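Exercise: predict the fold of this chain.
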Amino acid sequence: WRYPYLLDYCYLVNPYFPSQRMLDEIKANFESLVREYPSGMYVNSLLAGKNFGIAQSNIVIGNGAAELIKSLMGILKGKTGFVKPTFEEYPGRYYKNESVFFVPENDDFYYNEQRRKRFRLKYNLDNKLLLGNIGRFSFQKNHDFLLDVFQNFREKYDNACLLLVGNGPLKAKIVEKVNRMNLDDSVIFMQDRNDIPDIYNSIDIFVMTSLFEGMPATIVEAQMSFLPCVVSWDVTHDVKFTDNVEFVKGWDINIWVKAIENYLYAERKLDKKILYESDFNIVNTSKRLTEILLN
């Protein structure tokens, strides 16, 4: 995929980097690069100092955030907050009497009936059949089709509402379409928020009509909240780890409405054992990675 005498500007390669001098430097210091953490701090700080005209003692080499923590903690003064659990090097390098800890008491994205009631009362959604989607307003997310599905669904269920959370370049276009469809009283727009678990608790069915996705975290989070999900067939099926996800093939609105109806009376109950045994549980994934590396 590289040619000695051809510069291919259509490929994601910089033909001028790394330079031959840098390659020679890497080869000469290969052992230090492999064995030291971070690789060759002394040499890196010396070279950076010479390059920028700064004393080597004023250079802090950071391999990620770890090496910057000590310097940062030395600058901060007064009461400083830490969210637990956290990377323990942060509070470990700060004064205990000046540290304030916050430990979330909720069960992450787990379904909570009380939180659901509070959110619905706050936004006048009590007794509403609430469909929802969380995502950027872009071509990929296919909000246009989602509105068509919802309009058809609402003709059968007049207490239905659609909650759309997010921002993006096509949001104004979608708002305009809602106005044209006379759905202003049943489609609710919300900006990016920090109470997403409450959103999942309050929604009855999560609907994703995306044309394509990588690995959508929203579907993982929704399943953590025991929330039924109706998802486009073009979304990777690897995201499914519960029976609460149905993939819909094609773009027939009636088929989508029927798939949503299948979950109308679904109970928000799930054996937490399924979550603990899932590949999305970091404990399981770290064990698997360790086995791979050791073998």
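Check your answer against the key: Residues 143-156 form the longest helix (14 residues).
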